[in-house]
């Protein structure tokens, strides 16, 4: 990553990604955008037991939505569910246990969900993982890639038929501003070449999520796709994965509720779907997926290559 790109990103972060930046941006928010009832609509949220996912689930449950919490840890998920039900009075909150890094199980979960439920209006791909060192799953795939990219691809692709037959279907993926420092690279998806830098690998995965969203929006035009950056948020994941950053910035980090605001807006507001599908958002507005002069644009051929590689990998682990 170039020094320019790094410096430009940090400067942008300090001015746009902090708690104060959110408070400033929120002055232009249209409050009535979120004054809606979503009773009768169902929302699947991955990584819903903590941080941004939990805040999203809480906010949508308050508006009457049926919540499907997809979580890795049963105890934490049940605890979060109990809190959400207690605080919102909404009992339509369901826990599903799935580790997105277990590729075959992602397929199995999505297929069984489609058999059990007749509708899914909104899928929120929120779960993610930053690995401190390279590790592989049972299928031999790098765990970060399996969770952040292939798991998101399989879950989304598998649920598309269910989404398509539901009213006003939407798919929202929680990316990260870190992707701005990365150009799409398809030649080292398993991060098995060169030194493993977990933060940069994660940023590359987040770039791949942006490209994936753009491409899926082109092929599935009756679903509204979006991808967003929540800002710099004080979550357990950030504290664990980036302790130095967390320590130095902790007084400037957003709350999980502030980080979740744009996710909720994209999931429930009418205003969000008036924008084109496949776009990248920050604080309820469409923003560029590239820093100025950062040389992070990729060719349509490279973007298509990513989708082909994901499709091939997904099929390899699809249960027959």
UniProtKB/TrEMBL annotation:
Pfam families: adh_short (PF00106)
Listed InterPro entries: NAD(P)-bd_dom_sf, SDR_fam, SDR_member_12
Protein name: DHRS-12_like_SDR_c-like domain-containing protein
Gene name in the database record: dhrs12la
